[in-house]
Amino acid sequence: MPHSRDAATVGGLPGPSVRAHEPLHHEEWEISSSTHGSGSNTNSNGRTSIGNDEMNERITLMLKDWEQRVTQVITKWGDMGVKSAEYSRNQWREAMEKKEEEKIQRQRAKNDEKRRFTEEYCARRRAMSARAEVRRTEKKAQCNANAACSESMPPRKPRQSLTSGRRFWMF
After folding, report:
1. pLDDT tens per residue, the chain (171 residues)?
2. Structural domain includes residue 168
3. Residue 11 falls inside a structural domain
């Protein structure tokens, strides 16, 4: 196989760089690189200055991306039969995340049901109140139409208790 100056081959696959003193570079790994145009200022050295927040955000995103890729590889190999402690931890974490998501879904459904019940209850109460108001206004209108209604009717006696005047003996 032909050997290039820049890369060694291991089993037909390109291996690590032969240049020992040359650092590994990749555009996504560069903290100062940006996939979108940045309006940041350049200092006297010609380097682009990035705020600490932006740099921390980029580092966080790179680490999350790295962790996601590692997890995917471990899961892939574990699913093919190569089990490891990391694979078991990933499976456990995924199970816990799924369990937590189901718990959140149940709580959401419960809250939605409470809200729906409250809305229906309030709607029924408003409808009952509206019907009672209609009955009161109809009764008033009927009494006003019949002027003798209030004068002709004798005053009502107060209701008496069922037990008043009766004695109950207990043996």
Report:
1. 454 444 445 455 554 444 545 555 556 656 555 555 444 544 555 555 567 889 999 999 999 999 999 988 988 888 888 888 888 888 899 999 999 999 999 999 999 999 999 999 999 999 999 999 999 998 888 887 776 555 556 566 666 655 555 555 555
2. no
3. no
Q: Where would I find the H helices in the chain?
A: 52-79, 85-145, 148-152
Q: In 10 A of CB 74, how many CB atoms?
A: 20
Give bridge partners of residue 13 from the DSSP assignment: 10
Q: Which pTM does this prediction carry?
A: 0.39
Domain around 76: 21-34+48-82
State the total domains in the chain.
2
The answer to whether position 39 is within a domain reads no
Q: Are residues 102 and 139 in the same domain?
A: yes
Q: Which pair of structure tokens corresponds to residue 74? A: 């471990």
d(CA 75, CA 99): 19
Residue 89, φ and ψ in degrees, nearest 5 = -60, -40
Identify whether residues 116 and 137 lie together within a single domain: yes
